[in-house]
User: What shape does this take?
Amino acid sequence: MRLDTFLTYAKRYPDVIKQDLVFIANSSNLLDTYFYDDNDALVDITGATVIFIVKSKPSDANSSAVINKSITTFTAAQNGNTLIEVTQSECASLLGNYVYELRIELADSGYDYILKQGNLTFQKSLYATS
Assistant: This one.
């Protein structure tokens, strides 16, 4: 699944960051994530930290999140691209509705942006597994 994020929207238009996602439970799930500036140019994310947090409910502390990833190695940092992988073992026991937040901390500017947040549903696969 491709996920486009805009740093400017995070600052100026917080209502635009809402986006719901669906993952397959007990399976590997990939978010191919791209980071853009206000000119629709890809942002070099070298040195940044991308944070992906999944919780049962918004009021849960980050320390009790069911998934809490900090990513510092990127697919193509100069081209504003990274993959966020939620592995089969990380979501093996997850089924139903959760909430998520995707953030980026930019080392050179000290900014911490919430880029996307919303509901994340883990669904059973439509295909039978043996």
Observations:
- The chain has one helix and eight strands.
- The chain has one domain: 2-122.
- The mean pLDDT is 86.
- Residues 7-12 form the longest helix (6 residues).
